[in-house]
Write a structure and sequence with these properties.
The structure is a single chain. The chain is mainly beta. It has two domains: 237 residues, no CATH class; 74 residues, no CATH class. It is 13% helix and 39% strand. The chain contains six helices and 28 strands. The strands form six sheets. Strands 1-8-13-9-10-26-27 form a seven-stranded mixed beta sheet, covered by helices on one side.
Length: 350
């Protein structure tokens, strides 16, 4: 089912000229903003999210953030991204795997959508595999992220999302915030990806999915796990596909020796040629260099960075100017992405 709320029971968001909130804060401060009727997306640890009052917000679980003070892991703070209300009240929605293909149809004709999906769920898998074919996909700005858990709890905790108007917590559905914009402004989406296809062999799959066994490597049938083990593949380097000049990463989650399989954070697709990414001499320097090539047209109104960039790039305690938001289990820049940074800016119409 899809549920869109009218939020009539909550205070109307104030139309003021003040800057929108976009920062890490104590949970009590976020609760006060929600109680005041602010429309926002929230990211935080599940234990904190469950304490927030009902209101015009959606959120996903994650305890990792890129904040003004640097990368931080916190179970007491949340990251709040307030959205504009000048063109009307934003709408929230809940989606399962069968209704998620309508997410772009539900979007405002002029505005953007923030979407959060729980990692490793059926709705996550459905979006990863099917979103390029959704109606109106790539026609309306769509960004967001995949919720997660503390890395020490991967085997026992389940990522979740929360629908703020009724406080419902879901591990098998996604939540969205559809945000209208005035005609004087529009949403600009950009993606920072430091990886490029390398010069290694072409890898092709007969079957798609989050796990791979057999594949073709330069035309020869091989077991991907065995090939990666033989070549001591650097697990930090994703497989990269070239979609007409747009590079899309598939990050490696684990090599499973018992099953002779490779698990990914995003699905591979049959018939698509992949290559291992070019090696990165210094991950931190390469990531910072990639960021310098992106000058946002305005202060980012939304941003998320992959947890793998956070971990491999040693970003805890390091600052990224202006690029603040959750460090996530996947990024949404229209379709599902890995090992990227996605940001949205609200800019003046030409």
């Amino acid at each position: 089912m899809t549920t869109t709320t009218t939020t009539a029971a909550f205070p109307a968001p104030a139309r003021t000229g003040r800057p929108l909130v976009h920062r890490l804060m104590p949970a009590a401060e976020a609760a006060a903003l929600i109680a005041a009727g602010r429309a926002c997306m929230v990211a935080g640890d599940e234990t904190v999210l469950r304490q927030l009052p009902r209101g015009l917000w959606v959120c996903g679980s994650i305890p990792y953030f890129m904040a003004a003070e640097g990368g931080v892991c916190s179970r007491t703070h949340v990251f709040v991204t307030e959205v504009p209300v000048q063109a009307g009240r934003p709408a929230t929605a809940v989606y399962d795997a069968s209704t998620l293909p309508g997410v772009c149809r539900d979007a405002p004709l002029h505005g953007y959508t923030l979407l959060t999906l729980p990692a490793f769920s059926a709705v996550h898998e459905a979006y990863a595999q099917e979103s390029p074919g959704y109606d109106d996909m790539f026609m309306r700005p769509l960004v967001g992220w995949i919720s997660g858990v503390h890395l020490s709890e991967l085997q026992r905790a389940r990522p979740c999302v929360v629908h703020g108007p009724d406080g419902q917590v879901y591990t098998d559905r996604g939540v969205a915030l559809h945000v209208p914009l005035p005609l004087t402004h529009y949403a600009h989406v950009d993606i920072v990806n430091l990886f490029r296809p390398g010069h290694g062999p072409v890898i092709e799959f007969e079957h798609g999915g989050f796990t791979a066994h057999e594949c073709r490597i330069d035309g020869h049938r091989r077991n991907l796990h065995d090939w990666m083990a033989e070549h001591a593949h650097d697990m930090r380097l994703p497989l990269v596909a070239d979609y007409c000049g747009a590079h899309v990463n598939v990050s490696i989650k684990a090599l499973n020796a018992e099953q002779r399989s490779v698990d990914f954070y995003a699905p591979v697709f049959p018939g698509v040629p992949y290559r291992p990414a070019l090696p990165v001499a210094d991950y931190v320097q390469a990531f910072e260099a990639a960021l310098r090539q992106h000058v946002p047209p305005a202060e980012p109104a939304f941003c998320c960075n992959c947890i793998l960039n956070y971990a491999y790039g040693g970003l805890e305690g390091r600052r990224l100017p202006a690029m603040h938001g959750p460090a996530t289990f996947g990024e949404i820049g229209y379709q599902l992405l890995n090992q990227t940074l996605v940001y949205l800016s609200i800019v003046d119409a030409p």
